Amino acid sequence: MSNNKHTPTAALDGIRIIDLTQLLQGPYATQMLGDLGADVIKVERFRSGDLYRSMTFFDEWIEGTESPCFMPWNRNKRSISLNLKCDDGKAVLRKLIQSADVIVENFRPGVMARLGFSYEDVQTIKPDIIYCSASGWGTSGPYVSRPGQDLLVQGVSGAMTTSGRASDGPVAIGTALCDQVSALNAVYGILAALFHRQRTGQGQLVEVNLLSSAIAFQMQDFFTIQNMGRQFERPQSGIAHPGNGAPFGTYKTLDGYIVIAMGDWHTLVEALEAPHLEKYADSKILFEKRDEIFFEIEEITKTKGTEAWIERLLSFDLWVSRVNQQCAVEHDPQVIHNETFVDVEHPKAGRVKVTNVPVKLSKTPGKIDKPAPLLGQHGKEILSEVGYREEEIAALFKGGVVYSQNEENAL
Questions:
Q1: Phi-psi region of 116 (alpha: psi -120 to 50; beta: other; left: phi over 0)
Q2: Strand 77-82 to strand 39-45: parallel, antiparallel, or no bridges (unpaired)?
Q3: What percent of the chain has pLDDT over 70?
């Protein structure tokens, strides 16, 4: 057996993705494919680019120009800024499609058809194309013309009524979870379609939407509601799921918060040194009196610091963890061990910290070798790859068909 070492190839090496997406749902899906080695060509609107480039938090920008909304979802991609309102721009996109394996788009239903790039249109250009359409509500139905966005879908899907306390109104999940779950669904649909094409030579249409993804993410809750005839009711305490009893929840400590999940009740009572809590040692009581029990436990947890409780409860093999503020997560010892954050160099923002590829593959590992691109940064090289000559490329830039923010590429 040879001991020669070699650089592992990426799992999706040789796969080209045409990324016609913006904001979060679509870009996260294509970024995941790029992390696995696919060549992702991000086709952005002429001059203005992805809408997320113009959005930020705190009304602040990284190094004065770069968006913290855009950069996290667009690494491992190359950008071309293309005018799809003109025939020459559409001709460029057709050439790109001829070289591609997958198209991903998340325009409102009907937009791609009006541009002349519906699934049926694209099949005439590349018959074995895999075409992923990601939408908010689906491609047809009573909501098809409505804006589809994460917070709106949280409302319709019921997700906002499962968090918080009974006295609260609906509580939004504090991250764009519907977008991200739908992106994961898009990726597994695309990978399945690629596998099918490898076996049969046939492409296909892959459709995902935020609403179906958000509901599927709550499948345990919906199964219970629909098959047991019971509606979940939120507790008034910090019990963390409306279907669970005590002690499942978040508790104040002297200097922060801890989370207590599952564990033997008698063991917890011993660890808390609270024999008076033995009166609740019945599963029915633990649910029916969960608010009362929660506040009794919290009076005890508030007497010691977080680390003291972590050490003590773990010594009893109970399920416990600290609650980290987001700014402290990168310093958590397990996060450091897992190499969850890495640094990359961006041409304008400089050295920035990004979340690492979360999936570990032993033979075809993913990697981050490109930061989020500048608008149109790779236009010249992409055009060259699909057969445009140097003078033709110059004419496309001059004629307002292709745009590049990168001065070295601007002709």
A1: left
A2: parallel
A3: 97
